[in-house]
Amino acid sequence: MKGLSILLHAIGMVTSNLNAALRISAVLMGVQFVLAILLGVQFLYTGADTTNMIMSGAYPYGSAGLMVIIQAVSALWIAVAWHRFVLREEEPGAALPVFNSAAILSYLWAGIIFVLVLIVVAIPFGILAGMLAAPLMASPTTGSATVSGLILFLVLWLPVTYISYRLSPILPSAALQERMPLKEAWYATGASGAAFVVLAVASVLAAWVINLPVMLLAQISTFLAFVWAFAAQWAVLLVGVSVLTTIYGHYVEKRALNV
After folding, report:
1. pLDDT along the chain (259 residues), means of 10
2. Phi and psi torsions of 160, nearest 5°
3. Is the pTM of the predicted complex or chain greater than 0.85?
4. How remote is the C-alpha of 39 from its chain's centroid?
5. Where are the domains of the chain?
6. What distance in Å separates the CA atoms of residue 159 and residue 1, rounded to the nearest whole number?
């Protein structure tokens, strides 16, 4: 199945170019790791319940906001550098990739357009999913929660993720400063609709599996849970960007999938 082949190709892209992956991302992620500890915002990575912090007024909005900005800048920097390394063989520096401000701004703008389109697309799916799941949520039980979660996955998450993959070539093209219109991206990926459904399911299962130990480690040590969650986010970022790179390389540049 091509969807699974895309995911495996993306994972192989990272593992076979691990040295370059570390040169592109290690310092930037290391800075995030240290700052998260110093600012006391490890919960941003572990997904810990912050309801009590918010209710008591102890939520560190300033520190959390600063960390989110640092995360976003780092993710943009890493994504652009990785796309350019794989697709144009642009070697990163010894410790940091080149900060290509023009490409990063182009990527940011394409990302804003990408997200806005997905929000608009998600609205009707979200309304439909809410209508179907509302009766189950009204009388919450373990079974109803499972079914409502499945409804949200099938009716909302799956179609929106499918559309996101179909439109995703606009992001690598922006990193290469070869801007691609949404219509062109949609047509370029039109030959393999089922592949993106498989890719969507496989990618969410892979992300769920790699993050599963966080809950178990949280019962032993919050620091160990943070370390695992941080490493998982690092892996998901690199593989996720590699998936976008693979889609662009295969469907736009007609490269073979090496699986």
Report:
1. 91 95 96 95 87 84 94 97 96 88 97 96 91 72 73 88 95 95 93 86 90 89 94 96 96 87
2. -70, -40
3. yes
4. 24
5. 2-252
6. 19
